[in-house]
Request: fold
Amino acid sequence: MAKNLWTKEEHIIAFNYYCRIPFSRIDTSNPDVQELAKLIGRSVNAASMKLSNFARLDPELQKRDISGLSHGSKLEKVVWDEFHNNWDEMLYESEKLIAKYKNKSLEELYDLDETSYKGLEKETTMKRRVNQKQFRNMVLASFDHKCCITGIEIGDLLISSHIVPWRIDKKNRLNPRNGLCLNALHDKAFDTGLLTITPDYKIHLSQSLQNTNYNFFIRYQNKPISLPNRFLPEKQFLEYHNKEIFIDN
Reply:
């Protein structure tokens, strides 16, 4: 007998996995897809199909004529919209559900010494740690775990860089469209305003960098970045970086 219709909780968990699995790797052989299936008690094929269903709602995939499966449930759209309207709360909610389905606490999943924190401080610290990790997972997955400037794909060297800084825009600090996957060196240059990404997704160096002989910067001047397979960086965030952070001298 077929299992009952997917619940909203299962949709929330599935979307969490959708965000952190590169789209090209959504298939039944992927260990993360298999983990999702086991977690919610569905077949691997059903889990893979559900993840593919979310792709039909992804405008960046639609622009590339990749629409996922053509039919899906109304709950997919509901959950998609809830995440996009409130990444901060929904990411944390989805991780709490995953912990619940694994019969573990968030402290166990994130190796947080719960004796070090109490009350509101504990909840705030846990939420920040969980959400920061998930922001990194989403951004790196979107860029297929490669630096969008150099193509470096050594995980320990990759940073999920905020376009508009964390401290500036609370609403969008966990929005994956406010993120770039950069290697540590170019992340530092981007963060300090020595280079920027223009709203048409090209690399632009400050004059001070252009006047150097550092080929690991110069060679990328005016070159396009490698675009993500979803969660394309918002042009308004890039405009902010160009105007408010970039040092054009």
The CA atoms of residues 59 and 213 lie 40 Å apart.
